[in-house]
Specification:
homodimer; alpha/beta; Aldehyde Dehydrogenase, Chain A, domain 1; Aldehyde Dehydrogenase, Chain A, domain 2; 2 domains; 16 strands; glutamate-5-semialdehyde dehydrogenase activity (chains A, B)
Chain lengths: 415, 415
């Protein structure tokens, strides 16, 4: 069994060193990591072939195998990702605020690394590189625990990154992979409160729920997305159609894809047949409540469970409501606090929706697909936080930091 | 058994309404609450007398009974506390940042309430009022669960606040008290993830550890403070003496009191006898390592456990080190990430200590006793966070908020 305590101690030591490195040396190391990936393409693909062969042997379905697959192009993409992280501003050392107190103390609140970050994730081996790069940029050591399907790829990828750290004269324990993929080790990792400052799970909604339930280490919950688009009575219906199709179809498997459409009754008769046709033309199964079915009989009846379900697939469910207030109430009840959008040309309706919807990101007249670190301009992301503590929405390097108060005095005591 | 789900639902409904109230109405309600406390002084003291009588009957020790005791003066203090919270700036609606993306979306990141906050705490009934006021100011509903020793006081205090909310035409479920003090109900509260957004425990280190271990709701850990003062070889020894005595003696029972002194060997011979005498004169038991005992034989030998122990009492332990690096290593190993101070006139030593110590607050030449919401200028605090997620150090109204991204477009879809 893997010695997690030892890994934890090594991680803490590396994190301490990393916290003192400075931007230049971190960026040099990121460049070395990026180059090392490309130079080791053959070795990485060889290891990946083993994973692919095992996956086929175990009857894993085609879509999953595609997620597992590494090609020279995909390795190049991971390498480019590290270069982009290198180009990001360094969040460490930034002073958020500062002031002098009545007792004459000078206080500054400065950004510092979180320390040791645990990443626990499912199949895709690119998470190994993406997470390692972003955690490193923010001065954190990372302990990675990927899925067993990608274990051979993950071992070679992490070894490649560690060699690059060694070549950069940096403690390679800044990036550690748990190569024991047993459930016992995963459970132990989730309880390693003494060494891991925060645990970030990446994967399916089911996987994340499992981690949230079992972990003792503080967690940042990511990814569950039951996103709604509300078409108001004063919507520009052309915009609405374009946005719904984009939000559902452009990439249905991701968390910021739309899963539900809420229609104001005043536009339902006119808009629903068009919407239905467009969704059908894009191979989307359309479910709906009885009011929707009354307008378009081909609609599949939605069950009560539908309203809380994230399909991640070519399926959408449509509900018709009497008012904006009903739409807000329904969305706040069933959403996963991820991303919600209103389509309207009405100023007051937009303002009310933006104020009253409880979610990480609330849109007016735009596709929910923009909830993404790249699209937000953060450069890269470690995930989309759907919790309210610490970080909410797309998490970039800045969200992988905490703060420290530095207080300078000249002998002050408290009276 | 208390119907916690029902309380959770009522809390969520109240939180939604509270989030839309605006500063003026919240401040009016806070004023009404402050007045109601004073007007109900007799009733509050009557209920408190029951708690005091029970405590005496149960043989609870004098210091604890003093914490439980409410007097007209103390009720006035609580009332003044609410008035101070009223005068604080409202954190809700503040825009932290905003920008336009390449796709022409306007993004603002705005401060919004956390939602429903759970407070679980031990004896002192003033926490009921302090916590309710600060949570309310930040637009949050609060569910309070105080210790059984203060239950009669807590019931009357919370009812008084709820009446004031009703009189202010505000949903009284913004402040709810769990009046069932059984362990089962506490455990159920700690698992109420569907309704409580964050749980804040207040009390002894042991109590907080218990909550951290048992809770499923995300927690903000507060309060454990094994604080160090390091006296550098280049310290101004007069400042050092004054600061150590202040940090240890001014109020030994609190988390920002100093528990350890780390002495550089070059000043130990000269400084330790003076320090020992001053500590003795203040009735402080002085423990120390063998090097310290060699200089002052009256020092009690410290055991290995001493270095990690928070005394909260008139006890201090002294360790002598060879270098600044050794001091930093020792502190980072044993501290609770609360508050640490270096006493030095040496610029580089100060800079290194401030950069390398891992704690919520790091001081140069000042008493650790300043780690406090009032002293920092936050007006009031809900506790001192010793964790790295979400908030670190003194937590005021601002730390009881989260953010929401508001994104405005005119039909943008993702390509």
């Amino acid at each position: 069994m893997t010695n997690l305590e030892k890994m934890g101690q090594n991680g803490q030591r590396a994190a301490f060193e990393l916290g003192q490195l400075g931007t230049q040396r971190k960026n040099n190391a990121l460049l070395n990591m990026a180059n090392a990936l490309v130079m080791n393409t053959d070795k990485i693909i060889e290891a990946n072939k083993e994973d692919i062969a095992n996956a086929k042997k175990n009857g894993i379905k085609e879509a999953m195998i595609d997620r597992l697959l590494l090609t020279p192009d995909r390795i190049n993409d991971m390498s480019d990702g590290l270069r982009q992280v290198m180009d990001l501003p360094d969040p460490i050392g930034k002073v958020d605020r500062g002031w002098e107190t009545v007792s004459g103390l000078d206080i500054t609140q400065e950004r510092v690394p979180l320390g040791v970050i645990g990443m626990i994730y499912e199949a895709r081996p690119n998470v190994t590189v993406d997470a390692a790069g972003l955690c490193f940029k923010a001065g954190n050591a990372v302990i990675l625990r990927g899925g067993k399907e990608a274990i051979n790829s993950n071992i070679v990828l992490s070894e490649t990154l560690r060699s690059a750290l060694k070549d950069s004269n940096i403690n390679p324990d800044a990036i550690q992979l748990i190569d024991d993929v047993s459930h016992e080790t995963a459970q132990k990792m989730m309880e390693l409160t003494e060494y891991i400052d925060v645990l970030i799970p990446r994967g399916s909604g089911k996987f994340i729920k499992m981690v949230v339930n079992k972990a003792k280490v503080p967690i940042i919950e990511t990814g569950a997305g039951n996103c709604h688009i509300y078409v108001d009575k004063d919507a520009d219906l052309e915009k609405a159609l374009k946005i719904i199709i984009n939000a559902k179809v452009q990439r249905p498997s991701v968390c910021n894809a739309a899963e539900k459409v809420i229609l104001h009754k005043d536009v339902a008769n006119k808009f629903l047949p068009k919407l239905f046709a467009a969704l059908q033309a894009n191979n989307v199964e359309v479910r709906g409540d009885t009011l929707a079915k009354a307008i378009v009989p081909e609609i599949v009846p939605a069950t009560p469970e539908d309203w809380g379900t994230e399909y991640d697939d070519y399926i959408i469910a449509i509900k018709i409501v009497d008012s904006l207030d009903d739409a807000i109430k329904h969305i706040n009840k069933y959403n996963t606090k991820h991303s919600e959008s209103i389509i309207t040309e009405n100023y007051s309706a937009s303002r009310k929706f933006m104020k009253q919807i409880d979610a990480a990101v609330v849109y007016s007249n735009a596709s929910t697909r923009f909830t993404d670190g790249q699209q937000f301009g953060f450069g890269a992301e470690i995930g989309i936080s759907t919790q309210k503590l610490h970080a909410r929405g797309p998490m970039g390097a800045n969200e992988l930091t905490t703060t420290k108060y530095l207080v300078q005095g000249d002998g002050q005591i408290r009276h």
